[in-house]
Structures are given as structure tokens and as C-alpha cells.
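User: Sequence recovery, please. Input:
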């Protein structure tokens, strides 16, 4: 964290030692000193003339507890005070008037509050018209609060990085003139008062990276040009671009905040409407007055052209801009330059104040008037995982997903209602169907949550993105999606294996899968599904990486392994299902040749083959595209972005959830029989019950009609017929 700071310290030491070797005794360096008080006597004892001291540095002073600030006045030429690695130095008294002081640095020490520097330039020297501090650096201390008026100074840059600041109160920088201000690394900083920066009209750069702020005030940031709020996931809402009249660059944390800058009309419609009104008034005003001002000379004195251009083209963002220009305050932002960074302490460059009496009001308003939108270079830009679009993206997808939701929810509730209210003996197929219906119902609930958020945030999702993606709702939706997907795949595999096992060993009743064994298997399936759905909540991948709340982002090896495990599970399950259904078809005759080519048997085989083809085709349609594009993404060659991937993840993949209840339950004879039984118990719709009984009554046979002679069947053929009937009975639920 302090590597750059250490490099700067070493560089400062090198420069000071070079000066000492050259015979310049204006630099004082106390390195690894055991002093407890920094006084004029200590400096004299080191052999320095106080009248000649310009730079005072104290490095690695483990016992330093006090700085005699009154002795600093005995060094009239003091330009810089540098103290580092003084852990016992908790407070520095208010500094007296030091008119030549330009740099005040106390880093990696024990300061618990900001020293009062408001009186440093009270007594101005004759050769300095507007004194200022090039740098105030208090990085790496233990500062918890910022007292009022402590930083009532003129400074090019102020750094409060990596402290313990928890709150910036109102008017913390009132009457200050600071060009660059940094709070980077204050991880406990959560609250910025709405008036925290009020009164500082000259702030050009603000760094709030690595903090815990949840909102950003705008009062006092009208002149801001560079904003840094990186690695701050707690920031919920970004103000409108119209609140930052001169903002040029923004380095943010969330992609959707840059979307807000790119689409201001959707981010803040009311403020955008006001801007459009002001723009129309300005265009009309400038159009009428342009011919009266073409002959007037452009009187500019000590004004930077680039700054004027930015100001004149963006004044329409502020509803008070016209008034501010009428009284001449439009030029007050030229005090400071923006060259250098927070670390370039020797690069301070201040301008003289502009003459406010110049008659250039019209030029300030209309001299470089432009109807183009104010653009901000914002990062991170929207990418494949977080595009500036709604949750669904396309209108047809938004409509289609409701069809899938309706089929999944209604179909699976119908299956659960019939199976759970039936009083007949619970069998293994019924038991497995209940689990399959519940898992598919969870998929329907996931899609319902996604669809509701899409409707609520239609056209302006980036305004809701933080609450949704980083809220409890997205975590629940993501958990339901992964849990239901894994449990559904697992249950379908067990259902297929159970049917294959039952048909393969049809004549061996003792080899059937018991209900107890099926329960133990499903307990394992539940545990596996909960584990896979819970890993993103524990930090392996993340549900918040995209608006559809699926763990699609892969930043490390563990994320790639997790996603690869999901795809591998689906692939193994699908291959198992295909192999089992092929074996089932072969065991049932494979086309009717075991029936001697008889038409009825061949027709029955074709019906079974068609049903199995439908089951396999549905699984293939749902799983294969997702698996293919997922594998290519894991291999580092993504063929689709999330915008197109939503079609696979939100539409095709959940198709199983609405198809399974129909293919495996509702369209089977057993389910219809159970449904009629349930209706009959209610005493309602008797006509439907009678109609079903009439349709289900078999035609007369030798057993029901004794007058018809029964055909004699050889013993071998009889056993074969019984075995085949058993197989057909097991296959009936297909």
C-alpha cells in the first residue's frame, strides 16, 4: 500500500543528501532520531542555522511525541515540513503563520486528527500576492475525524488517504480553496454529508476510491473535472451528469453508473427536461444576440482557452449559471491549475484571479455555444456481461418468457397437487415426479422474479441495477436458478435410470429400486444441488455479475472450475438419459420385429419411439446450446455475449421446466387416472368422471363375455405375453 510512498521518501532523502554534499545547508534531515520533541534547539544542536533552513525532514522517529510549532516561526524561510514514521505523534498543535510554507507532509504516523493549518498564511510576505500550499499529505495515519475549519487553506492538493475517517461532516472544507482532494483507502468512510464539500468552489479532482460511501453529494462539486470512485461497490446511486457541469473523466466501480452518464434522459428525466428547456432558451438568446456582438473584441486576460471552452459549452447544465456570470463569478475557477497528480508535490501552479470587471458576459455565455451533449469519459464501460439494456433486452423475449413462466408454474403446481393429494400407495415413479415438479417450479419462480424486475425497470434498468444485483432478491433468484437446474437434471437422470432398470429387469420383481433407496438417492441430489447453488453465495463466482443473476463471470481458477462442474454435470446427465432411452427402446422390441411384424405391435413401438425422441429432443434443445456456448466461453473464446446469451439462459434452458410436467406426468394415462380420481372425491364435475369411465372401459373379451370361446395359449407363449405386458405397463408412463 505504501510502496509508492516509500519510493518518494527515498527520492526525497537522495535529493536532500545531494544538496548537503554540495554544501547547501538549507535542508535538515533527521534520520532515525530518538528525539521526543522537535524544537529549534534540536535543529541547532544538529549544526544548522535556523535562518537558512528551507526544508525540514524527520524520518523514522519512533519516540517523537510533540512538535514545538512556535519554534517553526524562527525559520522564516521554511518551505516544507516532512515527518514520517512517527507512531507516537498523535497531535500537532495549530500551526502559526508561516508565509513561505508550501508543503506539509505527515505520513505513516500516529495522527488522530487533522492539524489546524488555517493560520499558516495569515501573514503574507511581500513577494507573494496569493500564497498557497502545494501539498498537504496526511496519508497512512489514524485520523478518525475532520474538525471544522482545520483545512481552511488554499492548497493545490490535499491527501487524506488510508486513514480511519468514518464521516465527512457538513462544511468540512468551508472557505477552503482546494484543487485536488483524495480520501482513497478510507475503508470505514461511509457517510458524506450533503454539504460536505459546500463552500469549496475550486475542487477539480476528487478521489473516493476504496471507501464505503453509499451516496455522493453534489453541492460544491460543480467545477469537478475528474472523479475517482473505484473499488467502491457500496456506492448505490450516481448523481445526474447535469449536476457536474465540467466533469471530463469518471473512474467508477459499476458499469451501470456509466450507463447513467450515457443516457441522462433515462437516468433523470426531470433534470433532463429542465436541461432541454434551458438549452432551447440559450439557443434562442444566442441566436438573437449574435449579430450584435460580432464586432466586439474578445477581451481575455490571463484566461486558459481550454477552460473557457469547457465553461461556455456547459453552463446550460446549471440553472443558476446566468446569474453567476452576470456578477462576474464565472471566472473564479482560474485560481488553480490541474497539472500533476496527487503525488507530484512540486508541480503546484496557481493562476492570478481574473479581472471580474471585463465586459465579456456575452462571450462567456455564447462565445463557443454548442448544442452537442456534454460527454464524459467514463470507466468501466458497459461490457458483454453488463450492457446498457433492460433485463430481457428484446421485446419478443420479454413476451416469450411469460409464456414459459405460465406453463412452468401452472403445469408443475398441477402435477404436485394431483400427486400429493392422491391417497393411493406412494410409488417410486410418483416420488421422483414430485421432486421433478418441485425443481421445475423453482425455475418458474426464478423466471417470474426476473420478469417482474424487467417490467418494473423497463427503459431505465441502470437506475435499479444496484438494488437488484447487489440485493437479496438477486441472490435468491440466482440460488433458485442453479438449485432448480441441478435438482431437475439429477431427478431426470434418476427417473430415466429407474425406468431403464425396471424394464430391463421386468420379470425380476425383487430387483426393483425400493422407495427407501430412491429417498436416499434424492437426499444426495438435494445436498449436491444446495451445495452448487450455495457456492456463489460463499464467494465462488457471483450472482451479482449480471442482471439475470447467473454465475457467468469467471475471474479466477475456482470460478472456472465451478462453472465447468455445472456444464460437466449437465453433459453427463444428458448422455446418460440418451443411452438409457436407447436401451429402453431396444428392450421393448426395436420396431416390432419381435411381434412378427404385426401392425398393432409396430404401431405401439412407433408411439413409444416418438415419445422417447420427444423427451431426448427436448433435453437436447434445452441443454446443448447452453453447454456449447458455455464451454467456448470457459475456453476463452466466447461466441455470444450476455445480450444474446439471455436467449439461451432465460428462454431455451428453462423450457424443460414447462415441458417436463407435460411429458413426464400430465400426458400420461396414470396422471389422467389420478386426476379423475381427485375430481371424483370432490363431488364436482360428475359428467367429466362418467365420460372418462366410459372412454376407459375396455371392449368385451372372453373373460367379460363367457359366450365367446377363449383361445388356448401355449405355456411358453403365455409367459412371453405376460412378460411383454409387464414391459408395456412399465413403458406406459412414457
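Assistant: Recovered sequence (734 residues):
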Amino acid at each position: 500500500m505504501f510502496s509508492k510512498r516509500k519510493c518518494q521518501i527515498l527520492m526525497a532523502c537522495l535529493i536532500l543528501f545531494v544538496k548537503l554534499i554540495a554544501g547547501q545547508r538549507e535542508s535538515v534531515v533527521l534520520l532515525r532520531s530518538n528525539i521526543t520533541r522537535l524544537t529549534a534547539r534540536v535543529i541547532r544542536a544538529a549544526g544548522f542555522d535556523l535562518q537558512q533552513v528551507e526544508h525540514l525532514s524527520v524520518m523514522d522517529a519512533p519516540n517523537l511525541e510533540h512538535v514545538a510549532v512556535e519554534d517553526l516561526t524562527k525559520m522564516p524561510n521554511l518551505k516544507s515540513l516532512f515527518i514520517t514514521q512517527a507512531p507516537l505523534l498523535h497531535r500537532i498543535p495549530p500551526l502559526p503563520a508561516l508565509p513561505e510554507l508550501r508543503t506539509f507532509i505527515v505520513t505513516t504516523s500516529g495522527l488522530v486528527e487533522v492539524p489546524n493549518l488555517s493560520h499558516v498564511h495569515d501573514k503574507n510576505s511581500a513577494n507573494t500576492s496569493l500564497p498557497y500550499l502545494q501539498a498537504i499529505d496526511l496519508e497512512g495515519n489514524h485520523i478518525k475525524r475532520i474538525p471544522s475549519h482545520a483545512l481552511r487553506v488554499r492548497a493545490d492538493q490535499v491527501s487524506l488517504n488510508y486513514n480511519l475517517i468514518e464521516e465527512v461532516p457538513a462544511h468540512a472544507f468551508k472557505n477552503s480553496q482546494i484543487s485536488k482532494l483524495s480520501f482513497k483507502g478510507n475503508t470505514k468512510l461511509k457517510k458524506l454529508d450533503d454539504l460536505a464539500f459546500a463552500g469549496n468552489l475550486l475542487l477539480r479532482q476528487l478521489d473516493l476510491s476504496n471507501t464505503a460511501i453509499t451516496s455522493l453529494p453534489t453541492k460544491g462539486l460543480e467545477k469537478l473535472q475528474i472523479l475517482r470512485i473505484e473499488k467502491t461497490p457500496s456506492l448505490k446511486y450516481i448523481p445526474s451528469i447535469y449536476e457536474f457541469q465540467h466533469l471530463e473523466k469518471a473512474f467508477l466501480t459499476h458499469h451501470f453508473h456509466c450507463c447513467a452518464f450515457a443516457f441522462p434522459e433515462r437516468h433523470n428525466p426531470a433534470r433532463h427536461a429542465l436541461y432541454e428547456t434551458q438549452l432551447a432558451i440559450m439557443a434562442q438568446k444566442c441566436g438573437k444576440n449574435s449579430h450584435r456582438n460580432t464586432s466586439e473584441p474578445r477581451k481575455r486576460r490571463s484566461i486558459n482557452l481550454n477552460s473557457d471552452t469547457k465553461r461556455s459549452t456547459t453552463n446550460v447544465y446549471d440553472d443558476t449559471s446566468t446569474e453567476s456570470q452576470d456578477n462576474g463569478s464565472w471566472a473564479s475557477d482560474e485560481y488553480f491549475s490541474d497539472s500533476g497528480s496527487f503525488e507530484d508535490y512540486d508541480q503546484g501552479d496557481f493562476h492570478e484571479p481574473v479581472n471580474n470587471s471585463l465586459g465579456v458576459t456575452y462571450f462567456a455565455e455564447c462565445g463557443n455555444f454548442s448544442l452537442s451533449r456534454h460527454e464524459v469519459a467514463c470507466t468501466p464501460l458497459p461490457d458483454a456481461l453488463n450492457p446498457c439494456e433492460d433485463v430481457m433486452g428484446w421485446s419478443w423475449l420479454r413476451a416469450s418468457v411469460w409464456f414459459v413462466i405460465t406453463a412452468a408454474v401452472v403445469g408443475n403446481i398441477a402435477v404436485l397437487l394431483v400427486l400429493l393429494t392422491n391417497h393411493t400407495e406412494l410409488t417410486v415413479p410418483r416420488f421422483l415426479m414430485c421432486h421433478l415438479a418441485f425443481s421445475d417450479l423453482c425455475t418458474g419462480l426464478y423466471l417470474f422474479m426476473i420478469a417482474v424486475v424487467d417490467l418494473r425497470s423497463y427503459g431505465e434498468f441502470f437506475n435499479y441495477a444496484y438494488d437488484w444485483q447487489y440485493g437479496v432478491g438477486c441472490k435468491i433468484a440466482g440460488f433458485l436458478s442453479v438449485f432448480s437446474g441441478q435438482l431437475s437434471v439429477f431427478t431426470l437422470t434418476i427417473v430415466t435410470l429407474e425406468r431403464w432398470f425396471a424394464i430391463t429387469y421386468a420379470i425380476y420383481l425383487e430387483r426393483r429400486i425400493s422407495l427407501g433407496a430412491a429417498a436416499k438417492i434424492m437426499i444426495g441430489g438435494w445436498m449436491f444441488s444446495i451445495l452448487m447453488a450455495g457456492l456463489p453465495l460463499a464467494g465462488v463466482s457471483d450472482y451479482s455479475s449480471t442482471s439475470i443473476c447467473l454465475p457467468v463471470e469467471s475471474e479466477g481458477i475456482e470460478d472456472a472450475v465451478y462453472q465447468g462442474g455445472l456444464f460437466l454435470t449437465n453433459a453427463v446427465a444428458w448422455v446418460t438419459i440418451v443411452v438409457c432411452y436407447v436401451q429402453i427402446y431396444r428392450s421393448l422390441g426395436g420396431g416390432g420385429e419381435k411381434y412378427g411384424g404385426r401392425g398393432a405391435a409396430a404401431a405401439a413401438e412407433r408411439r413409444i419411439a416418438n415419445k422417447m425422441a420427444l423427451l431426448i429432443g427436448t433435453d437436447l434443445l434445452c441443454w446443448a446450446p447452453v453447454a456449447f456456448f458455455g464451454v467456448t466461453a470457459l475456453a476463452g473464446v466466447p461466441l455470444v455475449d450476455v445480450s444474446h446469451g439471455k436467449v439461451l439462459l432465460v428462454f431455451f434452458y428453462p423450457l424443460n421446466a414447462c415441458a417436463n410436467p407435460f411429458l413426464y406426468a400430465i400426458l400420461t394415462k396414470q396422471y389422467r387416472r389420478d386426476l379423475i380420481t381427485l375430481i371424483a372425491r370432490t363431488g364436482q364435475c360428475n359428467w367429466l368422471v362418467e365420460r372418462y369411465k366410459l372412454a376407459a372401459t375396455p371392449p368385451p373379451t372372453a373373460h367379460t363375455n363367457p359366450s365367446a370361446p377363449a383361445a388356448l395359449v401355449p405355456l411358453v407363449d403365455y409367459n412371453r405375453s405376460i412378460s411383454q405386458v409387464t414391459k408395456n405397463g412399465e413403458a406406459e408412463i412414457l
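The longest strand covers residues 154-159.
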